[in-house]
Amino acid sequence: MEKIPMRDGYGKALLKLCRERDDVVVLDADVSKSTRTAWIHDQFPDRFLNMGISEQDMIGTAAGLALGGMRAFASTYGVFLCGRAWDEIRTTVCYNRLNVKLGGAHAGISVGPDGATHQALEDIALMRVLPGMTVIAPCDAIETEKATLAAAGIEGPVFLRFGREPVPVVSTEDTPFIPGKANVLRDGCDAAIFAIGAMVYEALAAAETLAGEGVDAAVINLHTIKPIDRDCILRFAEQTGAIVTAEEHQRFGGMGSAVAEVLVSAKPVPLEMVAVDDSFGESGQPEELMRKYGLDAEAVAAAVRKVLRRKG
User: Which of 2, 55, 122, 145 is catalytic?
Assistant: First the structure.
């Protein structure tokens, strides 16, 4: 299966937006080669601003451009974007419901050798708590491109989360992408796995393993964490009676917590979360880290077996 970095999809979408729209401007905090916004600098230099290693200034400038009628895409590593500039995102962007789109690159533990300081494992929690913020975590490069294009059409702030490493392409150009509408990749009646980002591929691999054991597991790409697809979650809770969530994020406050909030309010069923368990990451090869922190297909399959025992 072909592997492509999700950030390539981000760069491709920004180029397309700059060709098709006059109101798009791109900002970066001095990591443009990593985020692929260097592609904008090369082809549309008058639509690109390198703000230096100054995330707070970048968000303030993006907000000013948005107030002037632009749709500003501000990009850097997710851990610095959501951490260092959280106050500016909250008070300047979200409070005023500005058209600032945030590209949170290098998310998750699979950043690898850069280590804990660069591994965004808290970004979903920080962003989804903000009023009016749309939070999207696409599963591959193709979906990242679609999500970025869609973000330009959403009124108000949007956070796009994507990783560094190449990941298997599990969607196609024809796969629909509608913000707030989950994609069912595999139907099933025994349990349902809701996954985001790189964990979508791991969930599909886990479902194949489980099928060999006689377990019929559904796999749902819950790419939009906010607004969440409540109807889809409740439908599979009713259909399967057992839910697993899988994300490259802290267990607390992430996609699993968002799914739990839906379930507890309307259809409580057994739920298991595959996520980082209240820990910082470390340096290492991406595959090694995913395995060590329980974020691979084997861990997802184990969570399904566990939730089925609880289901009875």
Answer: 55
